[in-house]
Amino acid sequence: MTGKERIKRFVLNLAALGIGCMVALVLLEVGLRIFNPIESRLRGDEIVLPANKKYIFESSNIRGTDRTIVHTKNSIGFRGPEFPKRGLEDYLSIITVGGSTTECFYLSDGKDWPSALQELLKSNFNSVWLNNAGLDGHSTFGHTILLRDIIVKLKPKVVIFLIGANDRALEEPPEHTTSHIKGALRFNSIEGLVKSATPYSEVASAALNLYRFLRAKYRGLPHWSVDIGSLPHADSVNSNFSETIEPHINIFVPAFEQRLSAMVRLAKSSQINPVLITQPMLYGNGTDPSTGINLGTVEVFPNTSGHAYWTILELYNQATRKLGKQENVLTIDLAQELEKNSDFFYDPTHFTNEGAAEASKIIYKRLLPYLMRNYRSFSNIKEKETNTATR
Length: 391
What we know:
The structure is a single chain. The chain folds into two domains: 1-35; 57-174 and 229-390, Rossmann fold (3-Layer(aba) Sandwich). Helix content is 44%, strand content 10%. The chain has helices spanning 3-34, 100-103, 113-121, 140-154, 190-197, 202-218, 241-269, 306-326, 334-337, 353-374, 381-390, and strands at 42-43, 46-47, 54-57, 69-72, 92-98, 128-132, 158-162, 273-277, 299-301, 304-305, 331-332. Helix 3 (113-121) packs across helix 10 (353-374), helix 4 (140-154) runs parallel beside helix 7 and helix 5 crosses helix 6.
């Protein structure tokens, strides 16, 4: 075979490979449009809410949760009661916003902390309507879109933000500068190209969601049931910790603070009162009262101690506390008030049934005086006193 023939064959094979790949992509695109097993909650820059869905997990092996988990979404795509037909004007209406710590995906209906909080508030207020708008994996990027495109239109009286965990090591990328669903393809990066293609392609959307999952897994964000007794312990403080923490201090936390500030201003300008909650975590300084294990020396990830992991998250919590003071916004310091106890967490950040119940009690205790001051007209205290006097 001559050189020209070899080149010709190579070109033909390459062309055949290209055509085959194109055909495969087209078939995959068609198949995913018929049935996509990967649920997408963010398409391009648009929130896709899982409305009217019920998730059932049989034989759950997640420590501290129900054996059978039932998780239901209403017609909005949130957890909680349906939106009143006559709107929210006659209700003490509250929406909780956050990531997986708020959604409590693997806790059954009624056992997520927003549902427990609603039940506690019903003892003090008439006509309480509270919905859980937490979305697993979402950061302030997603919260901003959710607030702007959906929650502002619902017009609740209060929005509660439990934020911080999913914002670690995130800086606003160029892909987030546009709010349009469809637009020109962006070739400045692979992620930018895939992200800009998601409004047009199920394949691109699936690829982006897979990438986000793997990125979250690398950061230790997905759910898993942790046996802290089986984890190794770090012999010493991380030798390169100062290098690890530096970009958080100088880049990521300031960017997080700017995004959170914009969310607070958007809520206020929409006549919605924002409330901030800091992000708690199992790991950090101290001893687990349930196991006696040192939560500071336990090795969360290779070369990352519980102390280091907690110290980084506390940078974001401190930014939340600081902004709360600056904006005169009620800030509930759940990160400090919730005990570091393995009975309360089944992994570093996700609540067990007991943990969610305990979190709801702390939030209720701090939130109640605020609601009494601002929404006393919804209070049933007078009604209780009248009924007692009648008896």
